[in-house]
Amino acid sequence: MDRFSWSNGLLEIDETLVVQQRGVRLYDGDDKVKMELGVALLSTHRLIWRDIKNHECCLSIPLSQIIFFEEQAAGIGKSAKIVIHLHPSSPSKEPGPFQNSKYSYIKLSFKEHGQIEFYRRLTEEMTQKRWETTPVSQPLSSGTGTQVCRKTRAVGIVGIERKIEEKRKETDKNISEAFEDLSKLMVKAKEMVELSRSIATKIKDKQGDITEDETIRFKSYLLSMGIANPVTRETHGSGTRYHMQLAKQLGDMLQAPLEERGGMMALTEVYCLVNRARGMELLSPEDLLNACKMLESMRLPLRLRVFDSGVMVVQLQSHSEEEMIASALDNVSDLNTNYSSSLSILLSSLSFLNYFPRLLLAEKVGHLCRDDSVEGLRFYPNRF
Amino acid sequence: MHRRGVGAGAIAKKKLAEAKYKERGTVLAEDQIVQMSKQLETFKSNLEEFASKHKQEIRKDPQFRVQFQEMCATIGVDPLASGKGFWSEMLGVGDFYYELGVQIIEVCLALKHRNGGLITLDELHQRVLKGRGKYVQDVSQDDLVRAIKKLKVMGNGFGMIPVGGSYLVQSVPAELNMDHTVVLQLAEKKGYVTVSEIRDGLKWEKERACHVLDHLLKEGLAWLDSQATGEAHYWLPALFSELTSRDVTPEEANQMTP
């Protein structure tokens, strides 16, 4: 922060304002500067920062001082930032708010967003380096220039600033209109949620006579609105017709891929496969899970299986437990030594899923025994 | 499933029950379902109108998405529960997050051989953005977090561990308890940790520290550097920054291990 100089914030004759953004806080290196939120202005020649409330408090730094800059993504509770690394000050630098600093970089923190646009414009200006081709006649510091000059510049910049302000207000207006409309929508949605809760209570208390058909319809209403089904925790998931249709589609679609992969696929892999194939109108993870839960009751040749570790797979019905154990044993004796689970991770993180559960099964039944060490988990034929 | 309300006796019973309820002023559930169906139609057209005006807003503005999600959560609605939901169909919110889910899974899978299934939210964010290309909409870390929350239901061990002001995203069902998490947090500053640092920083006995480190090694989350000056360093590849590491493909990794 010791690279900044005090400035009156007025642009020079050949200097043009490129973009400005409110709600910017300055950081000296990693430390917050003890100043209020301000407006960051980027011109063809300089980076300017002005306190939003106190316009007298205005700093600037020539763009030529910038070595390079990078984005710092927003985090939880943290705004997005642009980190700017600077050359050491030249000896003829005008005085600024800080005499010295232990950092040679600063950060602009965008509390009201706008970092993407600002970053893009800064990149453009730093590429074009327009300050080199249109040098300003006077040193850019406070208190210089004749009375007349200052007036002309002031009109110019005020006009430009006003345009930018109008545009910002327009964007803000669009966004606030959207928020208003959204709030009205949410009020209506809330009514639906309350109604559905009332219905659910009644179904539970068996007030009135609900037919199977009406229950199914009710569930589909809940699905449309995104309301969690409070009525029953069935093993068949939410059991709507949509999910039954999906289950059938999965039955057709996954036969071949499953056979290619030895009869088993992780649910996450299925999710990627199916959604990549669809391209649009994608399935949610819950849609997929609910559809898979129906596979058994619909007597399709696939099953959803949940292992102790929590891993969920879809497997071909034809894969009985004996087959899996037999195939695990084959692999172990084939390799003639041991089957290290960490090795299989390296081979293919997906086929690992095929083998590990089989190894565990075989171990449970007593056909294999394990050797558990820091080097990894290994399975050997059980000769005990 | 049985057929209810069959026969004259049942009909009479039903009429009696209805009369009783109406007397008490209670609305019957089936009447409410009819009411809900009507309200749903109205809501659907309101949502369509909203979508025609503001669909772009949601796609372009991560901040607006956050507001939208928070409002939904407040009233008890999950717009991402199903691709068949109104929100997803009309606002296109669903496709945005479900596709993001696919991209997250693919990134985690591609790097699993290197970091054991643990990656910083920052790195995940960078790589997802890279994969998406320049002209697709902006994706924020909040978007990633929400997509990951949805992925959890598929039982694949997706989880988020708070570390150093941000998060580590776990994509394998490795069991990580509080001890493991605390050691990860300790390692965050330098990318590695030693037994002494754990003893000094956390005041644990050597045995406890070694137990935790051994588990991390086994799960492939930590790498042992026994040639470090002083004592052995336990590195966490998940915490390596882009600048100091080189990408190794699974094939190369294969050739390196004995």
* Most strands sheet of chain B: 3 strands, antiparallel
**Average pLDDT level of chain B:** 83
CATH topology of the domain at 177-258 in chain B: Arc Repressor Mutant, subunit A
Spatial gap, N to C terminus of chain B = 61 Å
Task: Kindly report how far apart the N and C termini of chain A lie.
Answer: 72 Å
Order of helices and strands of chain A: EEEEEEEEEHHHHHEHHEEHEHHEE
Name the descriptors.
heterodimer; A: alpha+beta; nine-stranded antiparallel β-sheet; three-stranded antiparallel β-sheet; 15 strands; B: 258 residues; Arc Repressor Mutant, subunit A; 8% strand; elongated; endosome (chain A); ubiquitin binding (chain A)
Give an overview in words.
The complex is a heterodimer of chains A (384) and B (258). Chain A is α+β, with helices and mostly antiparallel strands and 384 residues long. Helix content of chain A is 44%, strand content 21%. Chain A has helices spanning 115-128, 130-133, 147-205, 212-225, 241-260, 267-278, 285-293, 321-335, 341-347, 351-365; strands at residues 5-6, 17-28, 31-32, 38-43, 46-51, 58-62, 66-72, 80-86, 105-110, 264-266, 302-306, 312-316, 339-340, 368-373, 376-381. In chain A, the strands form three sheets. In chain A, strands 1, 2, 3, 4, 5, 6, 7, 8 and 9 form a nine-stranded antiparallel sheet that branches. Chain A has a three-stranded antiparallel sheet with strand order 10-12-11. In chain A, a hairpin with a 7-residue loop joins strand 7 (66-72) and strand 8 (80-86). In chain A, helix 5 (241-260) packs across helix 7 (285-293), helix 8 crosses helix 10 (351-365) and helix 9 (341-347) packs antiparallel against helix 10 (351-365). Chain A starts with a strand and ends with a strand. The model of chain A is unreliable at 138-154, 233-237 and 334-351 (pLDDT under 50). Chain B is mostly helical and 258 residues long. Among the domains of chain B are: 22-91, no CATH class; 177-258, Arc Repressor Mutant, subunit A, CATH 1.10.10. A three-stranded antiparallel sheet of chain B has the order 1-3-2, sandwiched between helices. Chain B has a three-stranded antiparallel sheet with strand order 4-6-5. The longest helix of chain B is centred in the N-terminal third of the chain and has 32 residues, at 29-60. Chain B is elongated. Chain B starts with 7 loop residues before the first helix and ends with a helix. The mean pLDDT of chain B is 83. The chains are: A alpha+beta (384), B mainly alpha (258). At the A-B interface, helix 3, helix 4, helix 6, helix 7 and helix 9 of A face helix 1, helix 2, helix 3, helix 4 and helix 5 of B.
